[in-house]
């Protein structure tokens, strides 16, 4: 029985880790696939989401940030986590719109290198602004007891399941991600708006000739991608520390998700994120495995494993698992 | 002291009609792109930098906390070498790598571990470090260059993180994990010269230690080698690839191989710089060697200073080191130094394709043209 329990935990942890990557990767992938724009500041949107959520959820004390010196030793609204969950996505959506209009759009016709550089610069500015104002220390969210308590299971945080416990919040993360992914997928696949976006990917000039203003769907897609990154920041934050540097650290796995899944493909992003999450969590929980006299500890290799996976996929299937040749070319 | 190796020569050709009797200024324009001129200027710059930047400001009454210090100058030269090599790739071949911490970092570890176990001879450390970097660049370039453009940037970034995590934990027994490698044993140069000692017969106002002479020599060598590469047919091919990869391919050049060589060459410069860094610090801190921030810093330094020139990146290294180490301690703006650099960086990317140095170069040419015009 305990093996089943462990497998369930593994699956939940893996899917949840992957879910965060999926939320980030969908935005990246759509923006890259439709707008051909490389956004190195996507991680910054995640950080912005996490910090705004933090300030809405609780009061934080600022130890060595400038804000403390300017007379704000504590900051935050203390409205609780549910409020953050509702308020943050629209805010980050608007941030995304502003980013598209003022940073991305002037650079659509510039070389890839310039796009990467300018968004990288933006990521630095966001990271360092938070670093200077709020300080370098890590914060943790108060455990969202409202949500955990709302589940009719014993224990406020975990569900006992034959000697193992599953964090209810992880299940919620998976559920929220699944809902959002399905919604975005439906928008792109089954609405006129999605049709315009997809047509714009194929032949933007033709779309323009047909009298459709392609800039507006692009703007909205960028905003949706940003909003998803903001959601990732809020739902992912209770499970890890947040500090100004998490944006860049999460950006790399998010990019790998896009690379593995295939650019411009939502299904690819889901597949890629799930794969990466499962590989990472499996290696962590494998621990030390002994084969005869040889014993290997896999835990330290967990981070390495996802890069190895990406390299293998790229070498064998350069367009990604579900990507099409023409989009990536 | 112009350095716009490619474009400067072209712009001159059409803006400067050849005069019957060349003035002093025109004669200068003729020789200022020669290899010996560039080398002489570098030697002059390296030799005078400590006096001009460290001694003179203090003499003139600038508060000592706002002026350069000798170690910072040495560090600037080391980063200058790193940036110079990086520019070979970004500025001259047009490849944006986000993984150069790999070469700087692995060479630092290789040199450090070699010094602890075999010999601490600085030259041997440099040799081992640089060779390690070349090997790493070969492997990683071979894989990453399969995909162009944005994928190259993403892949190099990913490899950087991969190597960082490998050195952090699975190899922690050898590398010292997050504490860094502490057993570095730097010996004396040729068995006689202790790098930490002052140079005899030279006043400290000019050169404080052999370390500066050693690093300065490496800098001069790097500039000369870089200049050689860029002005050889090889450099012309690299520029051709930057301008139009497809055309270069159609002319019959093996673009992939040239890109790989450019990657390896810039990795070698990074390896030289990384080894020097360990020799200076006698310690390999993982956060300052393999962390992705190093890859980010070198991008910022090179782009700020100016891509596509030899001195631009070195200028960028000086600017970055000054801001990171001196301005960061200033009141009010000190806390925001990194953010301010970020904003300047965005401005440079948006408006100055050849960086701040390119703008200085352009201004100087303007002024020079105006003066030259008056003389005629």
The ordered H/E elements of chain B are HHHHHHHHHHHHHHHH
Major sheet characteristics of chain A:
2 strands, antiparallel
* Inertia-based shape of chain A: globular
Radius of gyration of chain B: 21 Å
Mean pLDDT, all residues of chain A = 82
What is the count of β-strands of chain A? 6
* Residue runs with pLDDT of under 50 for 5 or more positions of chain A: 149-163
Largest interface (CB within 8 Å) is between: A-B, 35 and 39 residues
Q: In whole angstroms, how far apart are the ends of chain B?
A: 22 Å
Number of helices of chain A: 14
Task: Return the average pLDDT of chain B rounded to an integer.
Answer: 83
Classification by helices and strands of chain A: mainly alpha
End-to-end distance of chain A: 49 Å
Derived structural class of chain B = mainly alpha
- The count of strands of chain B amounts to 0
How much β-strand is present in the residues of chain B? under 5%
> What is the total number of structural domains of chain B?
1
Task: Tell me the series of helices and strands of chain A, N- to C-terminal.
Answer: HHEHEHHHEEHHHHHHEEHH
Described by the principal axes of the CA atoms, the overall outline of chain B is globular
Report on this model:
The complex is a heterodimer of chains A (329) and B (376). Chain A has 14 helices and 6 strands. By secondary structure, chain A is mainly alpha-helical. Residues 149-163 of chain A have low confidence and may be disordered. A two-stranded antiparallel ribbon of chain A has the order 1-2. Chain A has a two-stranded antiparallel sheet with strand order 3-4. The N and C termini of chain A lie far apart (49 Å). In chain A, helix 2 (42-57) runs parallel beside helix 5. Chain B has 376 residues and is mainly alpha-helical. Chain B has one domain (24-291). Chain B has 16 helices and no strands. In chain B, helix 4 crosses helix 13 (292-305), helix 9 (210-231) packs antiparallel against helix 12 and helix 13 (292-305) packs parallel to helix 16 (355-375). The longest helix of chain B has 27 residues, at 255-281. Chains A and B meet through helix 5, helix 11 and helix 13 of A and helix 7, helix 13 and helix 15 of B.
């Amino acid at each position: 029985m305990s093996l089943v329990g462990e497998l369930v935990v593994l699956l939940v942890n893996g899917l949840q880790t992957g879910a965060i990557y999926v939320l980030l990767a969908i935005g990246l992938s759509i923006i890259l696939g439709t707008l051909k724009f490389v956004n190195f500041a996507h991680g910054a949107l995640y950080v912005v989401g996490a910090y705004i959520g933090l300030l809405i959820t609780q009061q934080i004390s600022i130890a060595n940030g400038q804000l403390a010196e300017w007379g704000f030793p504590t900051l935050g609204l203390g409205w609780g986590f549910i409020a953050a969950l509702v308020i943050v996505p629209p805010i980050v959506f608007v941030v995304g719109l502003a980013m598209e209009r003022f940073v991305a759009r002037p650079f659509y016709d510039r070389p890839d290198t310039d796009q990467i550089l300018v968004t990288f610069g933006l990521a630095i500015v966001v990271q360092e602004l938070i670093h200077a104002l709020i300080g370098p220390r890590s914060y943790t969210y108060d455990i969202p007891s409202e949500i955990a308590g709302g589940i009719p299971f014993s224990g406020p945080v975990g569900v006992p399941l034959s000697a193992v416990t599953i964090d209810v919040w992880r299940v919620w993360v998976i559920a929220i991600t699944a809902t959002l992914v399905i919604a975005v997928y439906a928008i792109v696949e089954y609405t006129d708006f999605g049709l315009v976006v997809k047509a714009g990917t194929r032949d933007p000039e033709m779309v323009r000739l047909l009298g459709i203003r392609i800039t507006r769907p692009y703007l909205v897609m960028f905003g949706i991608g940003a909003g998803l990154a903001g959601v990732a920041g809020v739902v992912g934050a209770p499970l890890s520390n947040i500090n100004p540097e998490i944006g860049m650290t999460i950006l790399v796995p998010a990019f790998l998700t896009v690379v593995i899944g295939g650019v411009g493909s939502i299904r690819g992003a889901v597949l890629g994120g799930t794969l990466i999450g499962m590989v990472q969590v499996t290696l962590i929980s494998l621990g030390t495995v002994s084969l005869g006299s040889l014993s290997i500890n896999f835990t330290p290799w967990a981070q390495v494993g996802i890069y190895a996976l990406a390299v293998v996929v790229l070498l064998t299937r350069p367009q990604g698992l579900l990507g099409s040749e023409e989009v990536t070319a | 002291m112009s350095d716009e190796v490619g474009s400067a020569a072209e712009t001159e050709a059409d803006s400067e009609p050849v005069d019957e009797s060349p003035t002093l200024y025109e004669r200068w324009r003729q020789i200022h792109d020669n290899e010996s001129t560039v080398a002489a200027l570098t030697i002059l710059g390296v030799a005078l930098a400590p006096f001009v930047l460290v001694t003179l400001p203090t003499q003139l009454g600038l508060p000592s906390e706002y002026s350069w210090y000798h170690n910072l100058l040495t560090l600037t030269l080391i980063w200058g070498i790193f940036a110079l090599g990086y520019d070979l790739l970004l500025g001259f071949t047009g490849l944006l790598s986000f993984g150069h911490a790999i070469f700087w970092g692995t060479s630092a570890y290789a040199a450090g571990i070699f010094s602890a176990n075999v010999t601490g001879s600085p030259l041997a450390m440099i040799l081992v470090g640089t060779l390690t970097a070349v090997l790493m660049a070969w492997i990683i370039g071979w894989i990453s260059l399969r995909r162009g453009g944005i994928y190259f940037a993403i892949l190099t970034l990913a490899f950087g993180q991969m190597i960082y995590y490998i050195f952090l934990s699975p190899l922690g027994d050898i590398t010292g994990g997050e504490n860094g490698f502490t057993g570095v044993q730097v010996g004396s140069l040729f068995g006689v010269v202790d790098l930490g000692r002052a140079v005899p017969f030279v006043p400290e106002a000019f050169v404080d230690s052999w370390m500066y002479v050693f690093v300065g020599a490496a800098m001069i060598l790097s500039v000369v080698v870089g200049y050689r590469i860029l002005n050889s047919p090889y450099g012309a091919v690299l520029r051709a690839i930057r301008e139009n990869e497809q055309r270069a391919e159609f002319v019959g050049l093996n673009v992939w191989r040239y890109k790989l060589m450019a990657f390896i060459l810039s990795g070698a410069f990074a390896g030289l710089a990384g080894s020097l860094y360990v020799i200076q610090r006698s310690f390999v801190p993982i956060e300052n060697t393999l962390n992705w921030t190093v890859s980010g810093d070198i991008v910022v330094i090179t782009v700020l200073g100016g891509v596509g020139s030899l001195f631009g990146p070195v200028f960028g290294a000086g600017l970055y080191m000054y801001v990171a180490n001196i301005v960061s301690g200033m009141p009010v703006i000190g806390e925001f130094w990194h953010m301010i650099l970020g904003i300047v960086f965005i401005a440079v990317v948006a408006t100055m394709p050849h960086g701040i140095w390119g703008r200085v170069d352009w201004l100087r040419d303007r002024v020079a043209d105006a003066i030259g015009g008056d003389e005629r």
